[in-house]
Amino acid sequence: MTAKSAAAAARATVxxxxxxxxxxxxxxxxxxxxxxxxxxxxxxxxxxDLRRSTxxxxxxxxxxxxxxxxxxxxxxxxxxxVMVGAVPPRHRSAxxxxxxDGYFAMARGTQxxxxxxxxxxxxxxxxxxxxxxxxxxVFTADSxxxxxxxxxxxxxxxxxxxxxxxxxxxxxxxxxxPGVAADFEPLTLLDRLLPVYAEVLADLRAAGATxxxxxxxxxxxxxxxxxxxxxxxxxxxxxxxxxxxxLLVASYFDRLGEALPVLAKAxxxxxxxxxxxAAVANLDGLAAVGGLPGKRLVAGVVNGRNIWINDYEKxxxxxxxxxGFADRVDVAASCSLLHxxxxxxxxxxxxxxxxxxxAFAAQKTTEIVTLAKGLAEGTDTIAAEIAANRAALASRxxxxxxxxxxxxxxxxxxxxxxxxxxxxxxERAAAQRxxxxxxxxxxxxxxxxxxxxxxxxxxxxxxxxRIDTAGYEERIRAEIGEVVSFxxxxxxxxxxxxxxxxxxxVQYFAEQLTGYLATRHGWVQSYGTRYVRPPVxxxxxxxxxxxxxxxxxxxxxxxxxxxxxxxxxxxxxxxWSFVRDDQPLGDTARQVAxxxxxxxxxxxxxxxxxxxxxxxxLRETLPLRAADRPAYLDWATEAFRLTTGAVxxxxxxxxxxxxxxxxxxxxAIDDLDADVISLEAARSHMQVATELAAxxxxxxxxxxxxxxxxxxxxxxxxAASLLREGLLAIPAERLWxxxxxxxxxxxxxxxxxxxxxxxxxxxxxRAEL
Length: 769
What we know:
alpha/beta, 29 helices
């Protein structure tokens, strides 16, 4: 096919779409089901309504091929484990008794069984459930979900393409099951898994599917020759099947690199590649392999992870270049639109001029359709859209919102000395022990306590004018009093105020910093039924006034025990926001760090003895390619040290991280120079403690002994057992006892019971020393 005919054939498609519904109907239905208020049939009907609505909207917008199978009650990796029969032994009886309840048992656990481990999906803030595999794993095909959802779409008249997690990515993201040797490599199960995929693909073809998409984002990471050989074998075998739909292998989040020639040679009919700035090297890669003659190329030119409008002229230039590389070029976002909010239309509080710079899933769909039309029919057919796009981009570039000379001057004046504590850790530790007077194995929590219905109602009442600020603040003071009193009664050593005034650990600060924009309806799935509203980082950052000092000081006035000041760190403020794309991330991080430095200084001046600066996103934001990591870690660790570097030796700096592969960043954790770090460890069975010990980590650490992402209450014996495992790696004088993460999403009854057990476990183990 010529470039001209490839252009004429161009169509619009997407890889996936937000699942929650306009009013988070899925979240409400699932949580209602968990509480017994919604029946299984009602939950299934809500899910079906949401799928139908999504497909209809996509088709009405002009998308020619809609995705199916991307919808999930909880997580698409969990769905894949069900599809291939990889149900852990401890969950099998629950799945056999009731498939839906068994599914949620794997996701959340029950009082009797622990859930699957959860970690971040590549470098996003989406969490997936990690498959547990071993040498004895037996895969069996269950294509019911994929086939049923394809048939739903087809029955409604849509051209549909089933989307599956690819077999290589599935295995590369899996872990050895409990009791299996740590060096077991799940990829060795590939030959056992491929026949299951073959069966699912045959079932989809029998249902009428002409194309199926296999997502292989793990291939944008550095891969060994053995792993690349596995990729070649997998797609040689699947491509060689006769009873299957055409195969579109999709990658995203970065450049495909050394896996590109492997897939280009594979007997599959199409590739989907990311062509945003992060993966622009895919252009060179395609040229190097001689293009994709005879194949379909789906070009991800619209950024599926950020919310700024597309540059039409730049994307059209990229698409024009790609026409010579493939038999057919289609237009898409760079990845599933799962990672952005649904629609800008309901946002009434953002200046319309600024709103015109933003594109959520609905607007990105329009961008994809517009670009496909321009590619297929010529740019004259979208001349008005190009002109409007050019004007919006120019408006943003020229806006005073984006640049503050005072902020830029302060950032430029930063020196290396600003990011260094005045004394080394050993001297600081002695000063802190003398000042704080804590026992061995001190107990604390990560920061937040349950956000009750009463707290949410108070915020709603304040917004609606049903109560005034004084009335709202009285409710907050009462909640802080309850939280402090409970912690004292329970016996925790370092307390928190519970964060009742905070809607979200990033949004709360973003709303008080210049340069940020907050949305009302910009919900994005983080995991399961947990949705967040990432703020938009639109301009230069500064802190007009203290943000946390008043509430921390109030809590401290209620107790003689130290109360931690709680802040969200600069990297996490970026990672869990939609960041500006018009300057380097390191520059933005430095601005945020300086604003937070002011807050740290004010907390210390108010008498706060312990200050925690959370950086759960430090590992999450780590570039997927090793070659890109040193530069990132340089500015990320500098930003943290700049935030905390001004405090006196006797002020104890904590940080916190959760749900990530920490082994990749142990040196960076060390480089933060925090006095204490708390980390997720309960689901991963203290793996992080071993990693810290292997590195020779010299400071204090609190690997979590209570998994807060499950409703189950660990008893004191279980927490004590985990604590003893931690002591095998970290000496008692440097070991803290804490949950994995904040308690915001938990209910009060389970929180009270779990923390009482945590304190009892610490006392038991302390007595053994």
